[in-house]
Design brief:
373 residues; alpha+beta; Methane Monooxygenase Hydroxylase, Chain G, domain 1; 7-stranded mixed β-sheet; 53% helix; rod-shaped
């Protein structure tokens, strides 16, 4: 059954507002703002932007954490593969410098700082821009945590922009450091595939958390449904709606990547992209299955509560049926008439009690034989 200390967090009004904020995005830019205007539309999740890069080829690897973006700009002119990761989107000046040096379109920069974007891919003259939601399961709060990932693939580099520190790319970094697999021998397109694959594979872990919560709720619904159970089910359904909204465009995005014709993705890497597409379809199927299960649990909850209510009403009805004739006899001999012959008989009172007991036991035996209780 669900842990009781988790229930208040699940029905916390702030959590409900968080889910609604993911369903309904409020514009932070003024209407009529010129296209390409850089305005960070999300909350500031880090005090200071953190920059890290990995520069490698088959024979060498360099890894550093520079203090400014200027220390990374020279990587554009190197023949090696460069992965520059930026944590924090609130530094508009940093993005302007990167965009100017690498020749990025202003609309691309605008999308990077505008959080809440749908999963999408856009092709530019010398770059491919990809937006993906990163989902993770918050064990403490028992809810999905979402973050926007912006990925820019160029001729010899990959940029990733995240809202806060911490991601799902530790395994990819380890593969680069230890030269496992073919990543060190491949180009930036394979690195972009590896990052997208890590994000999509992590969806399954996030959905496992929802699945575990769903299982525990199912046991509670069957064994001991309470009022708070319905609140948790309602919260779970809204969480799944928000997750579905985040990853639903993923399949179309992967289809667009597979049809990409600007040459940044080689034919060899496209084969791996098809695998990511297959995983994205499986993720969507899992989300739909969890939504069906949660909807079924709501119906099960209502049926269980209705059944328990009917059982209570049946017991009360049986008790009332037994006592109705007994009440009739008690009321009959409780009338204040002077001439009632039975009142003057010596054995009238015990006889009446015996008749009432016989009637009650007889009705109990009849109801039991009918299987009514």
């Amino acid at each position: 059954m669900t842990d009781r200390h988790l229930i208040p967090k699940a029905i916390n009004p702030l959590h409900q507002l968080r889910v609604m904020g993911r369903l309904v995005r409020r514009a932070s830019k003024k209407p009529g703002t010129a296209p390409g205007t850089l305005v960070h539309t999300g909350p500031k999740k880090m005090e200071r932007v953190r920059i890290r890069f990995l520069d490698y080829d088959a024979d060498q690897l360099r890894e550093a954490e520079p203090t400014s973006i200027e220390e990374c700009l020279y990587l554009k002119d190197l023949p090696t593969v460069s992965w520059i990761n930026v944590d924090g989107l609130h530094d508009i000046g940093l993005l302007e410098k990167v965009g100017q040096h690498f020749g990025w379109h202003p609309l691309m920069l605008e999308d990077i700082v505008s959080v809440g974007q749908r999963a999408k891919v856009e092709e530019y003259q010398d770059a491919v821009f990809i937006v993906l939601p990163m989902l993770s399961w918050d064990t403490e709060r028992q809810q999905i945590s979402e973050e926007q990932l912006s990925l820019v693939l160029g001729e010899n580099y990959v940029f990733t922009f995240q809202e806060r520190e911490g991601d799902v790319f530790d395994e990819v970094r380890e593969r680069i450091r230890t030269e496992r697999g073919r990543i060190r021998k491949s180009g930036p397109d394979y690195l972009a595939y590896a990052l997208m694959d890590a994000v999509v594979d992590h969806y399954f872990r996030a959905l496992e958390g929802i699945g575990d919560l769903t299982e525990s709720l199912e046991g509670e619904v069957l064994l001991d449904p309470k009022e708070h159970t319905m609140h948790v089910l309602h919260s779970l359904k809204r969480e799944l709606i928000a997750v579905r909204r985040s990853i639903w465009p993923l399949r179309d995005m992967m289809n667009s990547l597979l049809r990409n014709e600007n040459g940044l993705f080689s034919s060899t890497t496209r084969i791996y992209l098809r695998d990511v597409h297959d995983h994205s379809v499986q993720v969507l199927d899992t989300v739909e299955a969890l939504r069906d299960v949660s909807s079924g649990m709501v119906d099960l909850y209502l049926s269980t509560v209705s059944y328990r209510t009917n059982e209570i009403m049946k017991v009360l009805t049986i008790m009332a049926s037994i006592f109705i004739p007994l009440t009739f006899l008690a009321g009959l001999y409780g009338m204040n008439f002077e001439y009632m012959p039975e009142l003057h008989l010596r054995w009238a009172y015990p006889t009446l009690l015996g008749v009432m007991a016989a009637m009650g036991l007889g009705m109990v035996a009849y109801f039991k034989r009918k299987g009514w209780f």
